[in-house]
Amino acid sequence: MYQSHRDEEYVGEPYYGDGSVYLSPPTRTRRRMIIAASSLVVLLVGGVVVDRIAAARAESRTAKAFQDGMGTTDRPSVHVRGFPVLNQLAAGSLDHVDLTAHDIPASGSTRPLPVTKLTVGMDGLKTSGSADEAHADSVTATAFLSYADVSRALGVQVAQGDESGRVNATASLPLVGDVTVSAAVSAASGNRIALTDVRAEQGELLPPLKSLLDKALDEPIPLQNVPEGLRLRSVTTSEDGIDARFTGRSVTFHPDSSSA
Questions:
Q1: b/e for 91-108, b at 16 or more Cβ within 10 A?
Q2: 123, exposed or middle or buried, with CB in 10 Å at 0-12, 13-18, 19+?
Q3: What is the C-alpha separation between 192 and 185, in angstroms, rounded?
Q4: Which helix (H) or strand (E) holds 232?
Q5: CA–CA separation, 212 vs 209, rounded Å?
Q6: Which residues have C-beta within 8 Å of that of residue 131, sequence separation ≥ 6?
Q7: Is 73 helix (H, G, I), strand (E, B) or coil?
Q8: Which percentage of the chain shows pLDDT scores above 70?
Q9: Contact predicate 85/51, CB 8 Å
């Protein structure tokens, strides 16, 4: 039987003469599904918010423990990795935590050298125990030492050398003049930085200048303000300073925890 185009257009939907189509209201099952989906979204969003609050508290606690232990003026920035953090806290250990601190003051009286910037990655950071300390199963860290800080510690002007892994040291004395030497930078035992293979670069190495450079370069520079348990593995030079890389196992950050 022949059927008009209008009839074909509205097959399956009740049609009214004014051109409108009647749509039936959602069934009870559909309404329940919508409510359940909305409730799930609310629970997920709420869970993320609660988890973020827990992470922020863990970050604040870790920052305080580090600040108290290292004596920094400003709190370091701390970021807890992984989700959910609540599960990690319940287990008593955070999977991975990144920390960045600036201007860690030098300790000791022998050529104290502050750390300009310290970046730390901690695995297995324990969340239980004293509020003013933090313990990590393993740690990797890089201490950046600006040439300005190194120069003040040594008493001579230090800058990037012409070759990779070397620095230039310039000694100056009134009425005597300047002399510049080049020295290789390397890691030494006891968390110290050694300056070896000294070569004259510019100027005449007169006795007063030689004495000044010998005093500055002969003995390795101790890094006395890194957390106890970290061991210096390597050092590299850059345009702005020296990067000292550390690793450690079972490292605790707490007051007076810097290595001597």
A1: eebbbebebebeebebbe
A2: middle
A3: 11
A4: strand 230-237
A5: 5
A6: 61, 64, 65
A7: coil
A8: 72
A9: yes
